[in-house]
Amino acid sequence: MIEILIGALASGLAAVLDYLSAHVLTCLVPAFFIAGAIAAFVKKDAILKYFSPDAPRHISYGIASVSGTVLAVCSCTILPIFAGILKKGSGIGPATTFLFAGPAINILAIIYTAWVLGFDLGIARAVSAVLLAIVIGLAMALIFRSTDVETLKRKAMAPSVAGACEEEKPRWVTPAFFALLVGVLVFGASPLDWTLRLSIVYILTLAIAILLIYYFDRDEVTDWGMETWDLTKKIFPILIAGTFLVGIIAFFLPPETFQPYFGNNSLGANFLAAVVGMILYMPTLLEVPIIGTTFGYTSGHMAAGPALALLLAGPTISLPSVLVISRIVGAKKTAAYVGLVVVFATIAGFLYGNGMLLI
After folding, report:
1. For residue range 152-208, what is the model confidence (pLDDT) as tens digits?
2. What Cα–Cα distance (Å) separates residue 346 from each residue in 64, 127, 215, 312, 357?
């Protein structure tokens, strides 16, 4: 009994060391700084105001589909924001697109997926999440057209408030700032010689410091630091504890246990993966070690299609979030949303796993 316990604890510790020692400095640390910068410097209100039912679709759905890169939230955190934008008069389509895309296109999760599970799967997750968010949102708007009609009626009776946002710094500064941050991430994790990597990262970091000194005020830099720290303290401990637990589970349920169910790219395997994703609750980033270790994607026991289906469905819905969504929009809309997520996650996984989704 003691030997089994020691073995399980050792498996959990090995999982933590395997995932974090190889990726913390080169992947997670820069990713947290990027996500913190997005949260601090990109105005959320300027984005959410475009979700009205009468806004041009290419604008409302386009913005909603990439909202997760701005908000960097998980499925539980997105729910109160989803409820809030509906109350402010968002159309059901853009709001649903936002609900799906918020956790699905999370910048931290996309980067972590690409670095741990492979660049191809990371890109497939990002592109599929954006496309599925738009398709699911459009489908919800089509199915529940009457909801948007009621929303527009309420909007017509309410006074509109216009807002403006002044640009205080040159337009090139913020894009250049983010490009430098991404450069630190890319070169820091590259296979280049250690000395060359360190030199490039040093130069990029120096350029970031110059931009911060000359173009950002003290409050902006403080906000960036606070947002980065807030994300880190919320996510990093859960990631460590969750990865440790995943390692223990893998000790008792080795990856080959799931190979008969997820080891091929059949339609049934992808559907099962999407359904499992709908049931499981996976905090931000934890879906990566779950898929990589527990279900055995990194060891070849899980096929690419089910992995993508689980990556698309898992972070966006879970049994707890489904219960909350039903209280916000009702049982019919919730059932339609869950069904659409499972169906389209299954289709995306099947197409990707069988080489029919070219990314």
Report:
1. 777 666 555 444 444 567 889 988 998 898 888 778 767 678 788 889 989 999 999
2. 22, 15, 46, 9, 13
Of 292, 309, 208, 257, the residue nearest 22 (C-alpha): 292
- pTM, 2 dp: 0.75
Helices (H), 280-353: 287-289, 304-313, 319-329, 331-353
Q: Domain span at residue 349?
A: 40-151+254-353
What is d(CA 87, CA 71) in angstroms, rounded to the nearest whole number? Answer: 19
Residue 1 class from Cβ within 10 Å (0-12 exposed, 13-18 middle, 19+ buried)? Answer: exposed
Residue 180 lies in a domain: no
Pair of tokens at residue 146: 């009457």
End-to-end CA distance of the chain: 48
Total structural domains in the chain?
A: 1
Structure token pair of residue 23: 């990726």
User: Does residue 90 lie within any of the structural domains?
Assistant: yes
CA angle at residue 320 from 113 to 239, to 5 degrees?
35
